[in-house]
Amino acid sequence: MSLILIRHAMAGHRKEWLGDDRVRPVDERGRRQSQELIEALADHPLDRIVSSPYVRCVQTVEPLAEARGLGLELDDRLGAHRLHDVLLVLEELRGQDAAVCTHGELPWLVGRKFKKGAFWVLGEDLTPERYLPPRS
Q1: How far apart are the C-alpha atoms of 8 and 16, rounded to whole Å?
Q2: How far apart are CA 93 and CA 75, in angstroms?
Q3: Which residues of 24-44 are buried (b: 16+ CB within 10 A; e: fewer)?
Q4: Pick the CATH number of 3-132 from 3.40.50.720, 1.10.10.10, 3.40.50.1240, 3.80.30.20
Q5: pLDDT of residue 40
Q6: Any idea where the domains of the chain sit in the sequence?
Q7: Is the whole-model pTM more than 0.90?
Q8: Could you read off the pLDDT tens digit of each residue along the chain, which spans 136 residues?
Q9: CA 118 to chain CA mean position, Å
Q10: How many CA atoms lie within 13 A of 22 on its CB side?
Q11: β-sheet with 3-7: strand ranges across
């Protein structure tokens, strides 16, 4: 079982974005980070990729989904305004080979690194077991 928790790639600075934050795209560095996920997760089987509907999350895992020939599932509970629900989504995916892309301010990851473009490999009990920082 591979349950992977991904933080969206770099998307500039929130304070510099004038529009709706839900449509803020990844930046050039974020595009590189998104591509790097393909190789970084090559050894992890994946049957599903689930993402926050925010553009920066979708853009983070689109290359991975395309490389794996998987559809991208959007789940509103992974959005930045519902971070307390991320654990519910992970509970539903427990025991599956899945990647989940969301935002970084997760209450149950307090005190753990979770840089933009990074991911955690979660254990069967959903405990973060292995952290992989972004390469870019």
Answers
A1: 18
A2: 12
A3: bebbebbbbbbbbbeebbeee
A4: 3.40.50.1240
A5: 97
A6: 3-132
A7: yes
A8: 789 999 999 998 777 878 888 999 999 999 999 999 999 999 999 999 999 999 999 999 999 999 999 999 999 999 988 888 999 999 999 999 999 999 987 887 878 889 999 999 999 999 999 999 998 8
A9: 8
A10: 8
A11: 72-74, 48-51, 98-102, 3-7, 119-122, 128-132
DSSP class per residue in the chain: --EEEEEPPP---GGG--S-GGGPPP-HHHHHHHHHHHHHTTTS--SEEEE-SSHHHHHHHHHHHHHHT--EEE-GGGSGGGGGGHHHHHHHHTTS-EEEEE-S--GGGTTS---TT-EEEE-TTS-EEEEE----
In whole angstroms, give the CA distance from residue 98 to residue 26. 22
